[in-house]
Recover the amino acids of this structure.
């Protein structure tokens, strides 16, 4: 088996586990929806069992994703990303705008208002936030900022950070997350009159 095919097949299990967990499903709940046993689902997710079409098709239906999203098939020329909003328990919505892990990940997020006690986190990587609507409260270390529509922030995620609505209204943002060392590069075309 060629290494590219082997890599694609090896990535299916972790992708299935991530989809299930992102949707807040247990193996038992997914088994009830798909008719696939809990042990088979567990073996698929851990990579012990090879995925087959008769297993992947019910899983794609249950997760409401295209089959090629489960197998990370190479692009077929269609550049569109098929958006699959993920609703969180707090009322927030995350819409992944990129398809594959390992690169810069882009999300559109609508953060629902509510009583949120800031819980700063740290992890490897670099983040960019751009406010589309509403006001965003951003804590980085001991610094606090309020970002309004059209404003952006970027920061190293190894520093403790947290963000959420600045008031009792929802805030809509573009959220980019990159692996360690990836930073934004802005390119512009200079017009004839610019130096």
């Amino acid at each position: 088996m060629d290494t590219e095919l082997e890599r694609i097949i090896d990535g299916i299990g972790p992708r299935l586990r991530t989809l299930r967990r992102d949707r807040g499903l247990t193996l038992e709940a997914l088994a009830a929806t798909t008719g696939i046993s809990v042990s088979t689902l567990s073996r698929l997710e851990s990579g012990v069992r090879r995925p087959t079409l008769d297993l992947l098709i019910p899983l794609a239906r249950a997760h409401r994703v295209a089959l090629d999203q489960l197998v990370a098939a190479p692009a077929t020329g269609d550049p569109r990303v098929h958006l699959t909003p993920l609703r969180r328990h707090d009322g927030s919505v995350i819409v992944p705008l990129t398809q594959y892990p390992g690169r810069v990940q882009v999300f559109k997020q609508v953060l629902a208002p509510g009583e949120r006690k800031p819980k700063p986190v740290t992890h490897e990587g670099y983040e960019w936030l751009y406010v589309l609507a509403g006001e965003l409260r951003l804590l980085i270390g001991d610094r606090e900022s309020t970002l309004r529509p059209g404003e952006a922030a970027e920061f190293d995620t190894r520093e403790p950070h947290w963000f959420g609505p600045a008031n009792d209204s929802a805030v809509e943002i573009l959220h980019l997350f990159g692996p360690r060392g990836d930073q934004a590069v802005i390119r512009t075309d200079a017009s004839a009159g610019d130096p």
